[in-house]
Structure formats: C-alpha cells, structure tokens
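Annex B. Sample input.
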Amino acid sequence: MSSKAHGPFGRVVRVGDETDEAYRALLPSPRLRSGLADFLCFLVPLAIQEQSRMPAGRIDALREELIDMIAEHGDDLQFGGTHQKSARVALAKALAVLATAEGGVTILGVHACTAEHEGCPGSIRPATDMAAAQAR
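Annex B, continued. Sample output.
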C-alpha cells in the first residue's frame, strides 16, 4: 500500500448502492441523494485544498465547529430550512477533514481520500484488468 498523495484536491468520487437500506433511509429522496452527492463531489475537493494550508490547531477547532453545525442543523441539511446552505457546507468541510484519515471516508454516495490506499473506489484498474473485462 502506498501513501502517495493524490494532489492538492485529493480524490473524490461518487459511490453508493441504491439498494443499501441505511443509505436510502437516511436520504429517502432519490433527487436529494443524487444532488447531495454531486454537491459533495464539487465542494469536498475545494475544502481539502483549503484545509491543506491550515495548521493542525486550526483544523482541530474547525472540527469542533463542524460537529456543532451538523448536529444543530442536520435537519435543515436534509429537508431544507434557514441553515441548509451552511449545514451542507459544514458537511463538505467535515468530509474533507475525514478524507485525510487512512483509507479516507465513504458516506452519502461519496468517497473522499487524500492519499492512495488499497481498495480505493476511485482507483483506475490496470490496463490488463480492463482488457480482460472487455474480452468477456
């Protein structure tokens, strides 16, 4: 397993199984599932890049702020409301923080990571595997 970095924006890809009951229960609307995943795929790389310049102490404080925002306004995030925008931005920033963990983070139809790791959903298969798949 390599720890080679993915670059300043990390790697953020859509994943997910529409048959996953927990995922569907958390976000019952197919439109919300798709829209939120698209939003996260756009904003998480920007948050990864922004946070890469922050000192560790600032990231620790940011983590606390994000936890509070998501806990207080998670319903707005899901169903709309006064704090929908700030809650969704907080979610994207939280995923950027979690992307730095070994193996990254996979949630809400998105996988985000900042370094190569085994089993990464965003990894490109070697050409030999792709040729074998096309031959089938």
